Amino acid sequence: MARTSPLHWVGVAFLLIASILLLVTTISAPVIGDIAILKVMLTNQSALRNSSVTFGTFGHCVLDVAPAATDQDYCYPRSVGYHPATIMADIDGTGFSRTASASADGLTYAMILHPIACGIAFIAFLLSIGAGIVGSLLGAIVAALAWIITLVAMAIDFALFGIIKDHVNGDGSGSNAYYSTGMWTILTAMVLLFFGMFIVLFTCFSARKEKRRSGSYKNRGDAYDHGAGYNGGYNNTTTTTRTRRKRFGLF
After folding, report:
1. Rounded CA gap, 229 and 220, in Å?
2. CA dist 21 to 38, 195, 218, Å?
3. Which among 83, 100, 116, 190 has most CB atoms closer than 10 A?
4. What is the Cα–Cα distance from 159 to 57, expressed in whole angstroms?
5. What is the pLDDT of residues 4-51, one digit of tens each?
6. What three-state secondary structure class fits 179?
7. pTM of the entire structure?
């Protein structure tokens, strides 16, 4: 692309922002305890504030552990796959059926898709930033892959933490579970990847069409400069010679 459309850079910016938002979801608890995909406010009757449990991509943290004045936070070791139903049963006495517990625990292994989607989205950004037609096309294809993975990961997150949320809010203990920052960042990233992918793809084909059109005009101009057109142009003229007829065979 000789001249890059401003719209192309909007799509590139969407891809970058999406990768950053996916990174936020990836580094949720226990990497950063205050960032959660699902947060559960407990009813421990603290004089200052209630304790809370934050669930993230690779585990969970318990924040503001009693006594509340000490402001103690405990983040457990990171792992691919953990047991949120068992954790809430131990901390808050939430009851889960065997099926619900097994489903929630099994789905946590799929959250490895968060860093994978983040990495692929960033690769799509790097490919698109080159602003070449081939680079933009590859960027759009990679962005489509990142969008599919993000969509699958988001669906799994809602299914997994929806199970935990419904059981915690429905057990009558008074604890309140709700979706937190990590859930909304992956949702926003999915939307931005979708629009970024189509914007980059659209500007790629628009640039290719414009390049063809400019090349066609250039070839036509060269043809006229070299005398092509109008049956050889005005420079290629034919000279006709009139022959004088002899009269009486003498002149």
Report:
1. 9
2. 16, 15, 45
3. 190
4. 14
5. 688 889 999 999 999 999 999 999 999 999 999 999 999 876 556 788
6. strand
7. 0.81
